[in-house]
Every structure is written in C-alpha cells, then in structure tokens.
Design goal:
291 residues; D-amino Acid Aminotransferase, Chain A, domain 1; D-amino Acid Aminotransferase, Chain A, domain 2; nine-stranded mixed β-sheet; 25% helix
C-alpha cells in the first residue's frame, strides 16, 4: 500500500525538523511527515482540492497516548470503509513514533490517511492510501465550560472520522457568531441529540446517572475509555424537549478529556455538578500506552 523502509532507513529520513535549544539542551521538533519523510507541498494539494480521506487525532503526554490501540483500530477500520484496503497498524505506530521523536510534554498528533493521486473525477480508482503525521499544540486542561447551540445536522458516515469537515465548521461558525462556543447536532425529524462538531456529548440526569445519547455518532475513543473507567454509564435517547430533566452535560474528545457544558440553547446546566469531577478524575487516571 505504501513503501516500507527499515528502522535504519527511517532514521535517515527524519521529518523536516528544527532544533529548539535552551541552554545546552536541544529538543528536536517534528513537523509533517508523509510515509516517514518530509512532506512535499504538492502531495498536500489533494487534501485541499479533493478532500477525501480519514484521520484520527490523539493527545500525546510524554510519549504516551490514552487509548492508542483504539486510535489504531479506528484507522484500520475506517481505511476499509473509505479506501477498501487494509492499513498496517504497526507501520502507522512506527510512523507516529518517528514523527514524535524526542519531543517532550503534551501535544496533539493527527494521523491523516489519504491518497494524493486520487482525482476528484475518478474517486473509484484503486487507491494507494498514504499516512500523513502532523502535530499541533494542545491547551492546558481543564478548559472553561462550553456554551453550545443546537442545529439539525448529521455528518456523512457518522461512524467514520473522515476529513470532510465543512458542515461541522459551518455550524460552529454560525454558533460562534450567535454568541455560543460550538454547535450541537440533533436529528431534524426526531429531535434526538447526537454529537458535537468534534466531540461526543454525555449527560447527567436528575438521578445522577451518566448517559450517552442513543444516536448515529462517531464512536469516540475518549467516550469509550470513559465508559470503561466509569462502568456505570447508560445509552438511551435524549431529545431537546427532554433536556429540562438533565442536570449537567459534558463534551469528550482526546484534546479536552471531559469538559463541562454550561448552556445548551437557552438552558443553563450545572458546570460544577459533582459527577463531572468524578468523570474528569476517572479519565485522568487512565494510563497512557507507550508509543
């Protein structure tokens, strides 16, 4: 599917790097790599012009990732759906490890799988997906509570983390221009609440139960880990009209972990609900997997 190189060869093709030196200590900072070598800008045109592929983002804390195996599972699963081919999960792990290099601290790594040669006019051609590894800074947690505005919307292929983000970003923009922080999606007919633009949502009801909404959503890695750690979460339908029985809500993704939601449309929610702190603590206690 893509060229394989030995670990020795990979070390000779380090990503386009810079060295940040503080006193006598230098830190190698990885930039962007495509299949283990510095990415050629021409290969990125497909992301802007064709925009067909899938990805996962993972928070790296001192060379460890919570749910690393689940992120790799997602990439393999989505590659079958998007490109009808198998992705070598061990190879992806090696590429991420190389791109991270000796970088310390906390940051977000994104692994994007796409075919630079796949043309907009011929998407049915046999694909040869390649692996782009990039990174960006991450915010310190915890972050302030979110204020969200609901919109009727469903992503294409909700179970796949694909790179077609126009719909989510358009509604996020509309929400922000209306004075909110982000968008919350609902079913246009049933009113069922599903997910946010780049996060899963959970609720805490009047009995203190933690609830995931039953809807077509992305199976989030953070939500999966939290369910395993908490062990007392249920999945059931949640509608906008039923929100008055909800006492608190929270967003989850790899970057923020567990983040309170203080407002949904005009409904105020308890951002300091004691269950939220329990969920945050349970998630923080989950050990990371070494890259």
């Amino acid at each position: 599917m893509y060229e394989h190189r030995s670990s020795t060869e990979l070390s000779l093709h380090k990503v386009s790097q810079s060295e940040k030196c503080h006193g006598r200590e230098c830190q190698t900072v990885a930039m962007a790599e495509l299949d283990g070598v510095p990415v050629d800008p021409g290969n990125l045109q497909a992301l802007a012009l064709t925009n067909y592929g899938h990805f996962t983002s993972m928070r790296v804390d001192d060379h460890k990732v919570r749910g690393l195996s689940l992120h790799l599972d997602r990439l393999v699963r989505d590659c079958r759906v998007v490109f009808a081919t198998e992705l070598d999960r061990q190879r992806v792990r090696e590429l991420v490890r190389q791109a991270v290099g000796t970088r310390r601290g906390s940051f977000v790594v994104r692994v994007t799988v796409f075919d630079p040669d796949l043309e907009m006019g011929h998407p049915g051609a046999e694909a040869e997906p390649r692996v782009l590894v990039t990174h960006r800074a991450t915010s310190a947690v915890p972050l302030p509570p979110l204020r969200v505005k609901s919109f009727p919307y469903q992503r294409d292929l909700p179970a796949v983390k694909h790179i077609g983000l126009f719909g989510q970003l358009r509604l996020r923009r509309e929400a922000q221009r209306a004075g909110f922080d982000d968008a919350l999606f609902t079913d246009a007919i049933s009113g069922l609440v599903s997910e946010g633009g780049t996060w899963n949502i959970g609720f805490i009801d009047e009995h203190g139960r933690a609830i995931w909404p039953k809807a077509d959503v992305l199976p989030g890695v953070t939500a999966h880990l939290l369910s395993e750690a908490q062990g007392e979460m249920v999945t059931e339908p949640v509608t906008l009209t039923g929100l008055p029985t909800i006492r608190a809500a929270f967003a989850t993704n790899t970057t923020v972990g567990v983040r309170p939601i203080s407002v949904i449309d005009g409904l105020d929610l308890a951002a300091d609900h004691p269950t939220l702190e329990i969920l945050r603590r349970r998630y923080q206690e989950i050990p990371g997997e070494p890259l």
